[in-house]
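Researcher: I'd like a structural prediction for the single chain below. Treat it as a standalone chain; there are no partners to consider.
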Amino acid sequence: MMNKEAVLFAGGLVVDESGERHFDVRVRDGLVVETGSDLAAGDEERVDISGCILAPGFVDLHTHLREPGMPEAETIETGSRAAALGGYTAVVAMPNTDPTQDCVEVVEFVSKRGREIGLCDVRPSGSITIGRAGAQLTPFADLAAVGVHLFTDDGSGVQDEGLMRRALEYAGELGVVLAQHCEVASLTAGAVMHEGECCSHLGLPGWPALAEELMVHRDIELSRLTGSPVHLLHLSTARSVELVRGAKADGLPVTAEATPHHISLTDERLSSFDTRYKVNPPLRTMADIEAVTAGLLDGTIDAIATDHAPHPSAAKDRPLDEAPPGMLGLETALGVARAHLDCSWQHLIGALSWRPARIAGLSDRHGRPVSEGESANLVVIDPDPDWQVDPSALASRSRNTPYIGVDLKSRVRHTMFEGRMVVRDGVATA
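Model: Treating it as a single chain, here is the predicted structure.
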C-alpha cells in the first residue's frame, strides 16, 4: 500500500455537486484539509493543474473484473489499474465470476484483493440468486453484513416474477439495492444483435427491444408494489427510457444507468461481423441512441456505467454467433461521454461520480464535495485534448475495445485515491 501524500493542487477549476469555482486544494493524510484562492504551498508537493478540472473521483456501478475464474481476461489488479487511469476511485465488481459472488467467502476474497492492490476502492456486488441460476436467493443478510450493497445477476435477468418480488421485499428490509439485467431470455435465444433493419439485411438472429422493455416494465411495477428500490442496468432502448421517465414521475425508487457504447455506436457496426461490437444488450438504432442520450441529459438516466467486460482475443476471435458479448470501458468512458454528450461539466461528472456513488451506497467516501474534511478521492481532467485509443497501451489484460481509430475528447491527468496519487500525468504509479 502506498503512503498518503501531501499535495497542493493549484490553479484548477473545482467541479462538484455544489457547483464550480476556481480554487486551490490542499490534501494531507488522505483528506482535503483546505480550499481557497492562491493558497501558499507549505511542505506539500505543488501540482499545477491550470486549465484542468478537479472533481470527485468517478464511481463505476458496473465493472467486470473477471477474478476469480477468468484471469486470462482480467484480474482485480489489471482492472483496478484501468479504472484508476480512467479516473475511477471506486468500482462495483459484478458477480458473474467463477465461483459466483454468492457467498461471504468469495465476496471477501474480492474485497481483500482490492484492498491489497490499493489502486481504487473495489466493492463486490452479490448475486441475487445462488450461482446466478435464478432459482434460489442468496443469503442477502450475510452478504450485506460484509459490505455488499448492490445485488444483481448481471448477465442473466431474474426471469421468475415471484422470486424477484421476494428478492425486492427482502432487499427493502435490509436497505440494499437490487440491480436488474433486463432481458426476457425466451425472446433472445440465439440472438447476436438488435432485431431491426440491419439484422434482417445481414440474416442474423435478432434481439428485440421488447425483451428489455418487458422486464423494465415488470420491475418498475414490482418496485411500485413492494416500495423497494430497483436499479436498471445498461438501458439501451427508447421505450425503456420512457418507462423509467414515467416511473420517476410517479415518485418510484427507480434508478437507471447507460453505457458509453449505447450513446455512441449503432447496430450497423455489426455489418462488419466484427465481434468487438457484440454486446449485451446489443447496440441499437440511432433513434435509441438519441433517446438514451436525452435520458442522460434530462436526468431520467442517473449514471454512466461502463459495463467494462474484458475478453481474451481467443474468445473474441471466434465467429460472431459464438463470441462472447462485451467490450472494454473503464479507460475510455470519459472520452466517449465527452465526445457524445453536450452538457455542462457538472452534469457529466455527476453522472460519473456522485450519482452512481449514491446508488452504490458509497457516498460516504466517494463523489463527495471537494471541501475541508472530505476524503481525497479525486480526479484531475484535462478538458482539451482529442485522442485515440492505443490498444497496446491499455492497462486491461484484454484488448476488446471498439474505439480504435475513433476521436475521443478530454483525458484524465491525475487520479488520487484516499490521498495517494495512483495516476500521475496519465501514468499509473503502481
